[in-house]
Specification:
single chain; 570 residues; alpha/beta; Gyrase A, domain 2; 21 helices; flat; binds arginine
Length: 570
């Protein structure tokens, strides 16, 4: 039962009865319904000033007349207060309908097919080749993964793209360094770290020996010209980096449908450049080719350098077109740090100037910076936190806590993995994405705070209650037993879950789901503290067990949507 819709229908009928109807639809009314901050004011409130113009009456009068005209079994009371109509849903009916729906719909609770037939392309993670995966790429990876799952939940066809940073002069330098000082076995064994070492040495030695830079340029040109040796080394570097990254992706449970990165667009930029020219958008500026964006308050988009080299935005233009042509997306999301805000505003503006209406479907999903223990991360100063090391440490720390709290637990390693990684992911997705975040172990791993482990622990507690009860118990639940404020708070949160997921998708804001997890966990723990579940009365017991079951399912589902696992025992 959709209470919002049911309340809206009651208002429509009352409008007919009291005023002979009004030019407003049930959907419009449902959209205008508010949830009062305090349940003493009802479960839903309708602001009658929305009707004042239509009916040419004061909101107060409208509320009074409508309240007299509404009678429905699922409502225990309707009150007119200061131009608002406050609806009180019958507690037992409310609990019954909400819980029954969760138990019936299971993993699909809250899901619908509003995205059916639509495609979203998500550009996330998009790491750089020959660099180690550090926590600077955690947010893009996890926000992207959550948005991927959330879209699928609503029936979208989602395409996850890892737009690899695999293009640039640094790769020429790296090959030059490798040819001079590197050898196959060392790089094969040392992975990305060895490549970085070669690159650092190259830059140091190039300070005294400028000829090295020419060598770097030569190798870069060779890559561009498709020289077999250059390509072979370059592709090998790429596969070594990806192998490292894939280990991290496996740990995080993240997947992609495409790894088409910057170099993929080598042969797809010329048509875009020609098109820009033909549309009169490309102008010459000191030998370079640019699109002037002065009228829009932005610096020019640099399309071709004076030496003819293409740029980051040139590749993104080709990529945007390619994605439209290939996937015919309805929505194209770029999950990239807010530092690149200007880049994406320029990109979307150029697409608009090219006459592509679908520029409107492109969105930069920006997020803030991650620091660690108050220190910002800088590769240059060597203060880098590598993601695989962070995750491994998280698992070890979780393991230590589990050893202490639950020495008899089976599968301690597996649970430590789920909790450690879950803590990092949850922490990353807890705040509004645009906020900068400072990662600390104390806050991420705190079992009592607003953390992943806390939510996982609550889920495991619900599982344990149900396990101990054996069954939810054959008896017919007495839903009136869930009329107390603690049970009702749990029910209300569960009822809001579908709307919360929908808003999370619409605003590209997974943190709404993360917050929900904490709210529901807290409400359930309060309920559990205040109400004994295993009481003698079979009807009361069955109702409380069903509520516990609904919480367990919704927590697991919500955690899944943000990319966090939910162990059944902790
Ligand atoms: N590789 C870039 C970085 O690490 C992010 C790429 C984002 N995607 C894009 N289509 N520009 O900063």
């Amino acid at each position: 039962m959709d209470f919002k819709a049911a309340v809206a229908n009651e208002i429509i009928s009352a409008l007919d009865a009291a005023f002979g109807g009004a030019a407003i639809t049930a959907e419009e009314i449902a959209a205008a319904l508010e949830i009062p901050p305090d349940t003493a004011m009802g479960d839903y409130a309708f602001p009658c000033f929305k009707l004042a113009k239509l009916l040419r009456k004061s909101p107060m009068m409208i509320a009074d007349q409508l309240s007299g005209a509404i009678r429905a079994d699922f409502l225990s009371k309707v009150e007119a207060v200061k131009g608002y109509l406050n609806f009180f849903i019958d507690r037992a009916t409310y609990a019954e309908k909400v819980i029954t729906r969760v138990l019936e719909e299971g993993d699909r609770y809250g899901a619908d097919d509003s995205g059916a037939g639509k495609t979203v392309v998500l550009d996330y993670s998009s790491i750089n080749i020959a660099k180690r995966f550090h926590i600077g790429h955690l947010s893009t990876t996890m926000i992207g993964n959550a948005l991927y799952r959330l879209h699928r939940f609503f029936g979208w066809n989602a395409v996850g793209v890892n737009h690899l940073g695999d293009w640039g002069t640094q790769f020429g330098k790296m090959i030059a360094a490798y040819k001079r000082w590197g050898d196959h076995d060392t790089v094969a064994a040392g992975g990305v770290d060895e490549m970085v070492k070669l690159y650092v040495r190259f830059n140091q030695e190039a300070k005294d020996n400028p000829a090295l830079d020419d060598e770097g340029r030569m190798w870069f040109k060779k890559i561009e010209d498709g020289d077999p040796e250059a390509l072979e080394i370059f592709n090998w570097f790429k596969s070594v980096t990806l192998k490292d990254a894939e280990r991290v992706y496996d740990m995080l449970g993240v997947k992609f449908d495409s790894y088409a990165g910057e170099s993929f667009y080598n042969d797809k930029m010329q048509p875009v450049i020609d098109e820009l020219k033909q549309k009169g958008l490309l102008i010459e500026d000191k030998g370079a080719q640019i699109v002037d964006l002065q009228d829009y308050g932005m610096p020019p988009a640099l399309i071709l350098r004076s030496d003819g080299a293409t740029l980051y935005i040139t590749r993104d233009l080709a990529a945007a077109k390619y994605r439209k042509d290939t996937y015919n997306f309805d929505k194209s999301l770029y999950v990239v740090a807010y530092q690149q805000d200007l880049h994406f505003r320029q990109l979307f503006k150029v697409l608009e100037l090219m006459g592509y209406e679908w520029y409107k479907d492109c969105e930069h999903v920006a997020f803030g910076m991650v620091s660690f223990g108050g220190e910002s991360l800088s590769t240059r100063e060597g203060r880098v936190v590598y993601l695989d090391e962070l995750l491994t440490q998280a698992i070890e720390k979780a393991r230590a806590i589990i050893d202490e709290k639950s020495p008899d637990l089976e599968d301690k390693d597996e649970v430590a993995r789920q909790v450690g990684i879950g803590a990092v992911v949850f922490f990353d997705l807890y705040n509004n994405r645009i906020k900068d975040i400072d990662f600390t172990w104390e806050r991420a791993l705190n079992f009592d705070g607003e953390t992943g482990p806390y939510v996982q622990y609550t889920h495991a507690r619900a599982c344990s209650v149900l396990r101990k009860a054996g069954e939810t118990g054959g008896a017919k639940p007495d839903f009136a037993a869930l009329s107390d404020p603690f049970s009702q708070d749990v029910v209300r949160l569960i009822e809001q879950f579908p709307d919360i997921c929908k808003s999370a998708v619409n605003r590209s804001e997974p943190s709404m789901v993360t917050r929900f997890c904490v709210d529901l966990a807290q409400a359930f723990n309060k309920f559990y503290y205040e109400n004994k579940v295993m009481v003698d009365d079979p009807g009361v017991r069955a109702a409380r067990l069903q509520l516990t079951d609904a919480v367990r399912r919704v927590l697991k589902l919500a955690l899944y949507l943000i990319g966090v696992e939910a162990p059944a025992r902790m």
